[in-house]
Amino acid sequence: MTERRLEGVGATPTVGVGTARWYRPEDVTTLEEPPDPQTVSATAERERFEAAQNEAAAELEAERERTRERVGDDEAKVFDAHLQFLCDPQIEAGVEEGLGDGLPAPHAVYAAFEGPIVQFEGMDGMMAERADDLRDIRDRLLRLLTDTARSDIGALSDDSVVLAAVLTPSDTAQLDPEAVAGIATITGGRTAHAAIIARSLGIPAVVGIGEDLEAIDDGTEVVVDGEAGVVIADPTASTRTHAENPTQAAVIDEAVTTADGTELEVAANLGTPAEAARAVEQGADGVGLFRSEFLFQDRTAPPDETEQYEAYVSVCETFSTHTAEPRVVVRTLDIGGDKPIEYLELDPETNGFLGVRGIRLSLDEHAEFFETQLRALLQVAATDAGAGLAVMFPLVSTVEELEAAVRTVDSIAEDLDREGLEYAIPELGVMIETPASTYLADAFAERVDFVSIGTNDLTQYIQSAQRDLERMSEYQDPLSPAVLRAIDRTVRAAHEGGAWVGMCGEMAGDPELTELLVGLGIDELSMSAVTIPAVKRTICETDTADAKMLAESVLAVDTLEEVENLL
Ligand code: PEP
Ligand code: MG
After folding, report:
1. Which of 117, 285, 450, 510 is the most buried (most CB within 10 A)?
2. Are residues 308 and 382 in the same domain?
3. Residue of 293, 332, 433 best suited for mutating to test ligand 1, as the one with most atoms within 8 Å of CB
4. pLDDT digits over 325-377, tens only?
5. Which of ligand 1's atoms lies nearest the C-alpha of 289?
6. 83 is in which domain, residue-wise?
7. Ligand 2 centroid from CA 259, angstroms
8. Does one domain contain both 260 and 394?
9. 331: which DSSP letter?
10. Which protein residues are within 6 Å of ligand 1, measured from CB?
11. Per-residue pLDDT tens for 442-467?
């Protein structure tokens, strides 16, 4: 049997070997023709529906608990949203209407969900995710009503590699990281929620492989190489041995310097407080990006001040058992673009990538969220554990926006003072994610303590290539000369203005680019916890003078190909 290699997008940069197990939830939506309405008892069918609804609620509650234990409180909240949809009055009225027309319970359920699903599907990417939720709940009810056996993704035998068309965030959260050797999916992207959960569980994952994945049968031996973004079926003995003995870099607990003594902070990107412990285990010096929007997603209402306070304090506390005054950079709410929040019902037209997203929402439509968040953050900054807290504003593109954000911080401080509450003003910073911000980095640096380069969005905007469009992938390389020149300009300008410079886009976590980033003069690199050991090791082996020479030569060429050749 010859080895077969399938390319996709590496979502968790680790390698796993196991046996392919297709996850194909049974199609429960193909129902038989309904019987003559005269023969159907509406009362009996209503009881059947209510029993299925209760059972579905019990399943969702159990899944919520399991997710809470395995992944964290915030990820578990997706199930609260599903529980609400399950008893949604509009859906219940639709089921009642079907029963009234003499349909059996499964047909009435199918009909009741159809309208809302079609409505959301017709909207576009952001709202279409809501349709996925509704489909998920409908199928759960249909499975229970038709007594269809459940494909239990959480109970796979050890060393399974899960193959699937697509995994939802809830599917992924059910996976047991001890048993699952890897994940490979036909669709999906690196920044999708399911991929982010896989990364936080440390499960090797390759997504977006395409239909070719179908050629791998159940029981085939498979290597999932999330680092190279390939899935290898029927590996040769040498591929297998190589995969089973990955050269994992050893964890370096302390802060590192280059071989010649230049200090560089290596921090973690977090989506939820539950990920903080894993980041500490991997040797993170602190947190360079806490994506606070995850606290707001997959639920029906925003977290209040107390809930946010507890979430931020808990991250600071986890890190302070490891480092004195750890720096924890919390990014204020960054929604819009590809990050929807269901209960806000943002208009996809006006809140798209070039619309009202990031700080723009916080200064305008959702100023109340920004204020609540800042109240929580300023109070955390006054605690012992929170002494190293820093607050960062997303997607800033004008000095006016930055000044308005800083004024809001000051006015929140005045409010807290008036109320007699303890607070402190944390370090403040700005994300560099737009072309405008790279030109204004000097002006920003005069007004805040730090900037952090978000290469995911910066690449999208500099290259004019939407970050979630697979067809644009050749433009989405942060090594493109235009992006590298924008980074170089930013670092120089921010340093001249007296600010330190971090990088928290995916580029920061690639050990093969560490030397270049040292040469470009970045002060802090923030990344998914799994890549911290390798990046720290590379920093220790890097000589700053050599790194600067590499950066200079890379900045002197005009094409991506030449950059790649130099690296
Ligand atoms: C970025 O844009 O590089 C970034 C870190 O922010 P996000 O990926 O959350 O948009
Ligand atoms: Mg961004």
Report:
1. 285
2. yes
3. 433
4. 899 999 999 988 777 777 887 787 787 888 888 899 899 888 999 999 999 99
5. 5
6. 37-145
7. 32
8. yes
9. E
10. 289, 291, 334, 433, 454-457, 504-505
11. 999 999 999 999 999 999 999 998 88
Q: Which residue in the list 107, 193, 316, 366 is annotated as catalytic?
A: 193
Q: What is the DSSP string of 45-61?
A: HHHHHHHHHHHHHHHHH
Please count the structural domains in the chain: 3
296 phi-psi bin (left φ>0, alpha ψ -120 to 50, beta other): alpha
Residue nearest atom 6 in ligand 1 by C-alpha distance: 454
Question: Per the residue annotation, which of 82, 316, 366, 504 is the catalytic one?
Answer: 504
The tokens for 232 are 């290898």
- Buried b / exposed e over 45-59, threshold 16 CB at 10 Å, is bbebbeebbeebeeb
CA of 501 to the centre of ligand 1 (A): 15
The amino acid sitting at 490 is T
d(CA 231, CA 224): 5
In angstroms, the CA 73 to CA 274 distance is 7
End-to-end CA distance of the chain: 36
- Distance, CA 104 to ligand 2 centroid (Å)? 48
Six-digit token string for 428: 């403040």
Query: What residue owns the CA closest to ligand 1's atom 9?
Result: 291
Which has the higher per-residue pLDDT, 36 or 474?
Answer: 36
**How far is Cα 187 from Cα 8, in angstroms, rounded to an integer?**
9
Q: Which of 117-131, 311-325, 353-367 is predicted with the least confidence, judged by mean pLDDT? A: 117-131
Residue 142 Cα to ligand 2 midpoint, Å, equals 39
Identify residues whose C-beta is under 5 A from ligand 2, the ion: 433, 454, 457
Residue 168: inside a domain: yes
196, 219, 244 - which closes a domain: 244
Q: Which of 75-84, 99-108, 118-127, 259-268 has the lowest mean pLDDT?
A: 118-127
- What span, in angstroms and rounded, lies between the C-alpha atoms of 203 and 293? 23
CA distance 292 to 286: 16
Query: Which of ligand 1's atoms lies nearest the C-alpha of 269?
Result: 5
Query: Would the pLDDT of 390 be above 60?
Result: yes
- For the question of residue 193 being annotated catalytic, the response is yes
In a domain, 469, yes or no: no
**Residue with CA nearest ligand 1 atom 8:** 456
Largest CA distance in the chain: 86
For 149-205, what is the HEC assignment?
CCCCCCCCCCCEEEEECCCCHHHHHHCCCCCEEEEEECCCCCCCHHHHHHHHHCCCE
Across the range 303-311, mean pLDDT stands at: 96
Same domain for 239 and 271, yes or no, is: no
b or e along 359-376 (b: 16 or more beta carbons within 10 Å of the residue's beta carbon)?
bbbbbebbeebbbbbbbb
129 has a pLDDT exceeding 70 = no
Torsion over CA of 305, 307, 308 and 314, rounded to 10 degrees? 140
Q: Of the candidates 145, 161, 176, which is a domain's last residue?
A: 145
> What is the three-class DSSP state of 270?
strand
